[in-house]
Amino acid sequence: MTEQQADTDVRVEVGVEAPIERTFQVFTERVESWWPRAYRLGESAWVDVVIEPHEGGRWYERGQDGNDCDWGRVLVWDPPLRLVLSWQIGVTFAAQSDPGLASRVDVRFESDGPSRTNVTLVHSDFEKHGEGWESMRGGVAHEGGWPGILKAFAEVAATQ
Known about the structure:
single chain, alpha+beta, globular
């Protein structure tokens, strides 16, 4: 796994021991299998995390209480090569309904042979969150953020 950060971007790359189609499928259809349970926005623990499979689709958690809490929108849906999501989560890690205040998560999947995929995630546009954006960028760049999350994803995708 490699990590690189520009002044405002967080970039994480991970190799996944799985074909590109399965890697994309686990990332988009099995989020609940690799996303940390403690990372939630809703009132109750979540039972599912959903990425609707089309541009304009929602990215959200479904709580045990039956309520949904939006995390963002699908900006680009190009299976199995690319997924772009808006990150409508504010600097206090609470849901942010204004899409103008959202950052961007761009995930690219590149085949490296029949049974390996390289995944590159770039989280950018943090400054759109306004005052305090630097702390959010620091949080998602930390091992408990995208680096650790993608490591967990790669482990799950390799065993699915």
